[in-house]
Amino acid sequence: MSKLKKAWESFRNSHDIHSTVFPYFSRWQKSHGKVFIYWLGTEQFLYIAELEFLKKMSSKVQGKRWGK
Q: Which superkingdom does the taxonomy of this entry point to (predicted)?
């Protein structure tokens, strides 16, 4: 079975497009946990895959201070 067919079967059965479309995020999440920082060129990004952490952090931020 080809890699593409295996990936399609896995996606069709689980509906997990995140690990199919962005496999490096799945690898990083396994090695660094559900909250980590990554860089794309000179820009850094905070990756959050933990809902409770996101709720807690966003409740502490006022709307006018959110973003850059």
A: Eukaryota
Residue 58 lies in a domain: yes
> Alpha-carbon distance 67 to 25, whole Å?
23
Q: Which domain holds residue 38?
A: 3-63
With a CB cutoff of 8 Å and minimum separation 6, the contacts of 36 are: 28, 29, 46, 47
The Cα 57–Cα 25 span in angstroms is 21
H-only helix segments in the chain: 3-14, 17-21, 23-32, 51-59
**63 DSSP 8-state letter:** G
